[in-house]
Amino acid sequence: MEKTRKHSRHSFRSNTLPAVVMTGPMTLLLILLVAVPLIYVGVMSFCSIDQYYNVVFQFTTKNYARLVSLDYMKIYGQSLLIAFVTTVICILIGYPFSWLIARTKSKYKKILYMLVIVPFWTNSLIRVYGWRTFLGTNGWLNTALQFLHLTDGPLNFLYNRGTTILGMVYCLLPFMILPLYTSIEKLDQSLLEASADLGAKKAATFVEVVLPLTAGGIFSGSIMIFIPCLGYFFISDILGGGNSDVIGNLIERQFQSGNNWPLGAALSIVLIVITLILVKLYQRMGGSMENLGV
Amino acid sequence: MKKRWICFVLALMMTAGLLAGCGSSESGAGDAGELNVFVWTEYVPDAVFEKFEDETGIKVNVSTYSSNEDMLAKVKSESEGAYDVVLPSDYMIEQMIAQDMLEELDQDALTNLSNIGEAYLNPSYDPGNIYSVPYQGGVAAIAVNTSMTDLDITSYADLFDPSLADSLVVLDDYRAVIGMTARSMGYSMNETDPEILSQIEEKLLTLKNNIRLYDSDSPKSALISGDCSVGYVWSAEAALAMEENPDIKIVYPTEGAYLFMDNWAVLKGTKNYDGAMQFINFMLDSEVSQMVSEEFPYLNPNTAAVEAMGEEYSGNIAKNPPADVIAAGEYVQNLDTDTLAVYDEMWTKLKE
Q1: Of A11, A83, A236, B313, which is least packed with CB atoms within 10 Å of its CB?
Q2: Going from the N-terminus, what domains does chain B have, and what CATH number goes with each?
Q3: Which helix (H) or strand (E) holds B139?
Q4: Is A243 on the interface with B (CB under 8 A)?
């Protein structure tokens, strides 16, 4: 008996202790930085406010009741629409471009890849403001169009849903290109040859062989674009001029000028739930969670 | 064994050093020689703080905020005495008084208070200036680019004219825009009656077609670049836009404009009350006030400073709104949370 006790103690020492030491700090960090804030937001979303907008720990479901109003629904709908269109455009632009980078044999391959990475070195806010200057009434685009006599007067490009989508596509496109590049790069050339040998035309090879094999890249790219689109309030502020709000704008407003933190927390929970549903859908469609960590 | 001892001594010394480090900064803050000032961004010139430090020897630590609510949240989350002097707007002063957050001002120390114009003293949000004195303010005016519209704009109501479709830049602030709509109909900015609010909502939604851009940070840019022909903007923004583009002119609405005023106040729990009073009195000085106006041309209640700056400044109605505009104007007040929920709903409808 003495011996078995000794043995179990030994095994505790040899397995548990190193495991605790190795994973402990990380677990603690995750609890502190992820779990606690999430719980805090969750709890706050059920809190009330007093007459001075101080958060009071008094249970209420009023915050959620306000969220199901038709007005908020319309903004969720608009937000989902913007995210969907952005994702589709990113696929349409990103796929050929990723294919080009992955498959090119030229010496420019590295340069093409860098073209995707380099914009990240500048803050996205500054780049989005750049678009505003470029598209403005006296911006380069309007000046050029008038110089070429294509238009008589300046056109209004800015401050609508279209420019919001443009900004989203511009900021998020790399998140489509990078996972697609990885999955196209991994594509086995011999499979394409086999398909051709067996008599498939190029279109058929693409639909039957290439697309299914790179679907993982498309899925993970889509999820990494769709979700930020719902929250990128600064793009709809700067390029949409406040005319095409996304869910992120609603949250920002409640934490800032609205000063209603519980309502903002409830809105954040809505965003988290939408995100979870999307990730679940992604998993259902066979997406791997590892691919999201690109 | 020797090594272990050396390690121990070293560790002890380092810990002691750490504690000593904490100690010295603590004692610095406890000195009567420091003042923690919490102000709006882009609102108080650095040169003014330096001048105060030179004159009094009191070291000023400046922190900044960009909204009243932000300031309130930070003050509440910090320990007492983290900030001594704050610069809240009218309605926030009222709210902070109600929450017992402000210290009464020592009226005897405010020898420069006489520089402030009669119209700005004894405000509705702090009768008798017991807790606050005005610093700078503004009027939500109308800026018109006369080369881009033929409409003769004189009032808030004109902003609803169908000919202005897709050409307005307005403040991205729900109280400002809803309040403007209310005033255009002859109501107050602080209506609470649901019946009246639903009328205001109906009118507000007709403005949607005219609004091209919501921008509180720098609405002048859209006016200067010609992206928007008419703006519902702060008078100081209009003043700066007029300097860039002579076609732009400022109009004060006939209905009476939305006013705001930012005020110096001292927080309860301050560790340097005398220094705080010295600072506030210093800010009321006419010369200091001129330094401020030269850099940030907001509405200056310091009549002595405005007079000293001469005709070029006082005659510019964008920088120095006429007295009748101030008299006809209205401040935003705190409303109950249920009413504000209705305002928020209206704003959401406008923005959807």
Answers
A1: A11
A2: 32-137+260-319 (3.40.190.10), 138-258+330-351 (3.40.190.10)
A3: strand B132-145
A4: yes
